[in-house]
Design goal:
This protein is α/β, with parallel strands linked by helices. 45% of the residues lie in helices and 18% in strands. It folds into 2 domains: 2-113, 3-Layer(bba) Sandwich (Glucose Oxidase, domain 1); 131-325, no CATH class. The longest helix is centred in the middle third of the chain and has 40 residues, at 115-154. This is Putative membrane-anchored protein. One of its GO terms (molecular function) is kinase activity.
Length: 373
């Protein structure tokens, strides 16, 4: 394998994809590449991924490397932080087999992830999955005890302009299969006109489908300036002690924002906000709903998510995977039934018309003559 191209480098994959172009080399430091990050990389069509960390560490079966492999994008894995630090933005890198060079200078070496190697690593994760599950449960219960008062009791909600009372609310996170699910519920959005909340990059997901977010909720680390400028209201997720790093970015755009100090994830507080402000129904797209989702999010325990789901469950519908319900193609029998149904009123109108009635009478007379009736 010989690959030569311009390097684009970032420790955060979600920020790198904003400036990564077709045919370039993506240099990342991403342990356990998740599906969402992998799909974002695939959209950019890089020539190669160089990962300083392990793309599959063995903790859980993350499917990001599979996504990249299926898209024909090779991964040079686990090259180390020393090589990562040596590589600079816009360097011209040449990869010969599994070695990295810059102007003939050796930078480092990694391991090329083949399809067989990826499958072998994923098989090994099954051995650790039960252990990770035990850690996840223990950690979640521990955090649940600490956070229950914030989530279920004394959490102070900010004053906002958006009116949720008796409205449907759509909460969009740019998570796994969000595009397919948004497409599947497009008719629902158009018919019910729900309040549209984008959780960080979920705001840009709404823009992709031609919708303007009513509200952006998050720490503002993965939403575009364009989305922040055109959305109707911004809620910055702050730490429980009130620190809100994301506020600086909003203010730099001359936009106003509401601060919401709370534990947990931004998608949690978006749901809490909608629920406690009187929403009639909350529809979630791309949100985290299983253990792999939680582990990909990077928290050992997702107590707040667990508690929030308990609180808002009576009004929450998770749209994750809804697109799979609509994948069956239209069958011939359905088309025949539809055609027959459409012909019935045409037939009735036809036989009621005077010319057709005269024709039927002539036919009746001819039949009587033939059979001697």
């Amino acid at each position: 394998m010989i690959i030569k191209s311009i390097a684009k480098k970032d420790r955060k994959t979600k920020e790198l994809v904003n400036r990564l172009h077709v045919g370039e080399i993506a240099v990342i430091n991403h342990r356990d590449i998740d599906e969402v990050a992998a799909n974002c990389l695939v959209d950019c069509k890089p020539k190669l991924i160089i990962n300083a960390d392990q793309s599959i560490s063995g903790r859980y079966p993350n499917l990001g490397p599979n996504v990249l492999q299926n898209a024909g994008i090779p991964i040079l894995d686990h090259v180390g932080l020393e090589a990562f630090d040596m590589i600079q933005e816009d360097d011209i890198l040449e990869i010969i087999d599994e070695e990295i060079y810059r102007n003939g200078e050796f930078i480092g070496k990694g391991q090329l992830l083949t399809e067989e190697l990826i499958q072998m690593k994923l098989a090994e994760t099954e051995k650790n999955f039960e252990y990770e599950l035990d850690k996840f449960i223990e950690n979640t219960l521990d955090y649940a005890k600490k956070e229950k008062e914030f989530i279920l009791g004394s959490l102070k909600l900010p004053e906002i302009k958006t009116v949720f009372q008796n409205r449907h609310v759509l909460v969009v996170v740019r998570g796994q299969n969000y595009k397919e699910d948004l497409h599947a519920i497009k008719s629902y959005i158009d018919e019910f006109n729900p309040i549209l909340i984008g959780v960080d990059g979920g705001g840009d997901a709404l823009l992709e489908f031609g919708y303007t977010p009513d509200m952006i909720v998050g720490d503002m680390d993965s939403v575009s300036d364009k989305c922040l400028l055109i959305c109707k209201e911004i809620v910055v997720h702050a730490y429980p002690d009130g620190r809100a790093p994301g506020l600086t970015r909003v203010e730099s755009l001359n936009k106003k924002a509401v601060i919401f100090p709370a534990p947990g994830t931004s998608e949690d507080i978006a749901m809490l906000l909608a629920f406690d402000k009187g929403a009639d129904l909350i529809v979630a797209v791309g949100t985290h709903s299983n253990m792999v989702d939680f582990l990909e999010k990077g928290r050992k325990g997702m107590a707040s998510t667990f508690l929030v789901r308990l609180k808002v469950g009576s009004k929450l519908i998770d749209a994750k995977g809804v697109n799979k319900l609509y994948k069956e193609s239209v069958k011939i029998k359905h088309l025949v039934g539809l055609l027959m149904g459409a012909m019935i009123p045409i037939f009735i109108v036809g036989i009621m018309s005077p010319p057709v009635q005269q024709l039927l009478k002539l036919l009746q007379i001819k039949l009587k003559f033939i059979f001697g009736m």
